[in-house]
Each structure stands twice: as C-alpha cells, then as structure tokens.
Amino acid sequence: MTTLRLLSFNIQVGIHTRSLEDFLRNSWQHLWPCDRRFATLQRIAEFLRGFDIVGLQEVDGGGARSHYVIQTEYLARQADFPFWHNQVNRRLGQLALHSNGLLSRLPPSSVYTTPLPGIPGRGALMARFGDGDASLLVIVLHLALGNRVRARQLDFIAEHIRGLSHVVVMGDLNCGSRAPELRRFLSRTGLRDPQPRAPTFPSWKPRRKLDHILVSPGIQVNWFRAFDFICSDHLPIGAEVKVPIHTLAMAA
Predict the structure, then answer these.
(1) Domain harbouring 169, CATH code
(2) If we measure between CA atoms, which residue out of 167, 169, 172, 147 comes closest to residue 226?
(3) How far apart are CA 82 and CA 88, in angstroms?
(4) Please, what is the average pLDDT of the chain?
(5) Do the Cβ atoms of 189 and 181 come closer than 8 Å?
(6) Is residue 219 one of the residues assigned to a domain?
(7) Of 218, 159, 213, 163, nearest to 185 (Cα)?
(8) Is the pTM of this model over 0.85?
C-alpha cells in the first residue's frame, strides 16, 4: 500500500481574499497585475508543502496579470514539487491564461489534457502514476457553472474512467454533493465522496461544498477535511489515502 496526501485548491489566481469586502475590492486583479499576488502565492506554497499530489484550479498560465509567471510552475518551485503540469483552457490574449494545474512529488508515467464539452474554456488534466493495472489515475477538473453543461462534462469523464480500478477525481466541480449530475456520476462510476458535508465556499463563511475529492472504492481514505486556510475565495480540501499499488515511488 502507498500512502498519499492529496489536495485540491481553487487559488483564485493568487488574489488575497479573506472576506466579502476583499472579494469585491480586489476583483480588478482578475484582469490586471498586482505585486501583492506574489505574497499570496508564497503563502499558498508554504501550505502545499505537506502534500504529495495537488490539483489546482483558477491558475494563471503566464498572462500579463500574473507578470507572465506560470503560477503552477511558481508554486511547484516554491514548494519543492519536482513534477508539475499546467493546462491552459481559456486565453484572453496575453492578459490572462485560465488554467488547471498539477503538482506532484511522484513522477507521472503520462499526462493527458483534453477540453470538456460545452463552451470552450473548461478542461480536464489527467495524470497516470504507475503502469497497466497497477496504476493510479488522477483527474483535475474545474466544471462549468450551468448544471446541464456540468452533466455533459461529468458524463464525458465517466467514459474516460470506465473499467479503471484506481481513480481520483478532484477539483472545483461548481456543485454540491447532492446535485443530480454529481449523484449520477457517482452512480455510473462507482466513485465515492468520502465526506459530503465539508463546505468550501465562500472561504470566509463556507456554506456550500463546491470542491471535491472523489475516489474509487478500492482506495482507503484515512482522513478527509476542508482546511481553515482562508487565502482564496475557496477553502482547500484534502485527504490522506492508501492506494493498493506498490509501484509508486516518490522522487528523491
């Protein structure tokens, strides 16, 4: 068995947000550069050090608003992750490159990215660890706001993981555990939500669970929680899992 600490975090492109007032006052930073962003990213990087595989959403992939810094790479270097991958899903010229990100202390055997159904701008980042039947597939998602489009996106992912034994799906799914489209997805795939009641949004007064880590039945969950780390408008959500695969090895 291999024990891994997983984290999913919508980092809101490094905008410092601890209250509704921050959320409104700093909204201009979604489009324009701000030097304070680096202090927020550094704080996030320190938090990420305690994890083995991290899925990121709302990352900037090197646009002008982030001073042309690929935030996934920046966090990987600051938090000493040897492996990282950035998936750009939507470009606003050179101003903003909306992305998903993956950080890992394990070497992935392959990384695959694909757009999701619906209006262009949403994607899935899939990383495989190990080979063949003795492998783990980790999928990072940031789903659409509309429930019909989300249903199509989840159906799309369900087809990709059909027949696989060890799968983790994590990200900002923009819906709660009781949403019909997510319940259908869990029913189709056999994945489970270890803790349906762990609200993550808004971070300063969480009422809704929009962020999820879903696992295959064969993956043991030691603990699962939403962290009281108020930095973005979402709280990070994490889990320690045991994967029945012996071929995974951490990078030296």
Answers:
(1) 3.60.10.10
(2) 172
(3) 20
(4) 89
(5) no
(6) yes
(7) 159
(8) yes
